[in-house]
């Protein structure tokens, strides 16, 4: 009935979709198995992509041939570049998407791929022969063979939904949980755990009074996520901001005795940086109010997502509390918020390729690894799909370093440090964040995609080379163009910057605080006339390269120093117990993780610099 596939991907959320595309774009024959074809690429929580550090990840996924950025560009209803008041390392793109269009576009792109087939049914387990994944078996007893398997089960593994004192099995509202896989993996020797996440109520937007809220418009000149020729956003829908109050908090507290979070029914740990509203009130008792973002679900629906009001309290408590929020006095609810508990597998059981250590050619990606967020899931799916293909072809896996991408930081953190709560990416997790900006993901990663032979990467490299040449031409012009005092002193005085006494190169003026190329173009027509011929993002890259030249050089030196440690290989299966000079914790952690290099060993929790010195001495370095 079925051919033998190169890769079977289980689950069609953000991780599963990217995994299927990644393997297919390298030439693998892929089967994407999902319990419901109508929920492919469903935005289970908020209808948005990107944000702080997450936006960088979406651009990295795009640069490696993934589809998340393309789909977002085709379906967004609003775009904002966050943190523009800070340095460029912090600039992060974020877009509100049309929820239904997003899923429909993803499915269309998947169905148009000649290397991807589909099967709608619950996968109950993995076919394992001689310690290697050989396919899957389904709920109705079908066995489908493959050379590798990627598990991207999201919140569905023994999922349990909580609303107040009610609880019922499910992987998402209105969808059943997946069973069988956890039990099999435990039998195979895997360690499992429980995590939780939550979602807010959905509201009828027709019942809200937006005049009582703050309006939040998108950028006047919206950018995009993808480096391909996706459409520009011409029209946008505004979001709105409102706030809870003491009265809202008191109403919510009335239901705390029926909250599954406080009465012990939820065992899993939730996301620290995206807590439920009841958790916020409990943890931040001194706060009189909390911000709520009122986000539209799309162009042609009145459904509203109340970002910041995630809750598992009884539905009547949620309803009564929300009606006391400004603008929500006559609110009508589509459905209440809920919490969901699900199984995950500590990611220290993985290689850095995302292949499991216990079963060859079996890969995990997304929430099964303890992460939270569409973007974190998508990038893991991409890497698991690429490396599943590589494993089938007996080629070396693609492993991104921490200096290559936020994707590299995320996977390195998971595999070497593990996580006991849902892992979310932040710019602070990346030590080389000036190098890992949202504007240069294509320069960093498209050459890797081309080298691997990812579909479409040759055309992308042409764009990258053009961008490099353009930004260099802009830099050369700025460094060589001279300005006289009378041309710029009026502007410099307006920003309280010292006046020029003689002609200088424009570069030296640009290097001053609060001076931007846009501000110089406004007063120097000749400069504006030159730059107008270049794309906005090419000019922006040149400006960042010049203004942050010192920081970039310093970080590059740090990378080179760290790379020397990455070149020092460690023997697989080495008995660290024999090195008595290592701390007891280091011996235990090194034996568990089995790092491939000294650099990887240095990032394992519990391995100190002193332990690294001992290792270097032991191997004669």
Keywords:
621 residues; Arc Repressor Mutant, subunit A; alpha+beta; seven-stranded mixed beta sheet; Elongation Factor Tu (Ef-tu), domain 3; DNA polymerase, domain 1; six-stranded antiparallel beta sheet; 22 strands; 21 helices
Quick summary:
With 621 residues, the chain is an alpha+beta fold. The strands form 5 sheets. Strands 1, 2, 6, 7, 8, 9 and 20 form a 7-stranded mixed sheet that branches. A 6-stranded antiparallel sheet has the order 14-15-16-17-13-18, with no helix packed on it. It has a 4-stranded antiparallel sheet with strand order 11-10-19-12, with no helix packed on it.
Characterization of this structure:
It is a single chain. Helix content is 36%, strand content 18%. By secondary structure, it is α+β, with helices and mostly antiparallel strands. Among the domains are: 202-341, Elongation Factor Tu (Ef-tu), domain 3 (Beta Barrel); 457-553, Arc Repressor Mutant, subunit A (Orthogonal Bundle); 567-618, GidA associated domain, C-terminal subdomain (DNA polymerase, domain 1). The longest helix has 24 residues, at 457-480. The chain starts with a strand and ends with a helix.
